[in-house]
């Protein structure tokens, strides 16, 4: 439903903008936007109720993710959940309910100094190599290609 609403909204009101541009502007931090992009974002948020509330929840979650201690992360996440769990926008409340299920893992992740970003990137690269290769005759050829492209 939200995807259909978004498509209709983009089709009716924003023909001069491509959907990728809109997504990019809404996904970036407000301080990273140019003044012109900020103007577009303000206009889009004024026109669409659901987009406005999703954008507010995203920016509030960015604040939550800046926590540096266990106590601070727990407090900020609890505040976020209290605010958005029963939100009038169904999309936002559904996201909050998903976060509730994984609340402990979220708190641990927020203040942890460790990241699995490098491993995720390597896995993505391996999948891309497999896809580009259209299959390999044997595993040795695949592993050789992986070593060549990843430098390991």
UniProtKB/TrEMBL annotation:
Which intervals hold domain Transposase IS204/IS1001/IS1096/IS1165 DDE?
A: 7-145
Name the domain of life. Answer: Bacteria
Q: Which InterPro entries match?
A: Transpos_ISL3, Transposase_DDE
**Which Pfam families does the annotation name?**
DDE_Tnp_ISL3 (PF01610)
Query: Which PANTHER family does the annotation name?
Result: TRANSPOSASE FOR INSERTION SEQUENCE ELEMENT IS1557 (PTHR33498:SF1)
What's the protein name?
Transposase
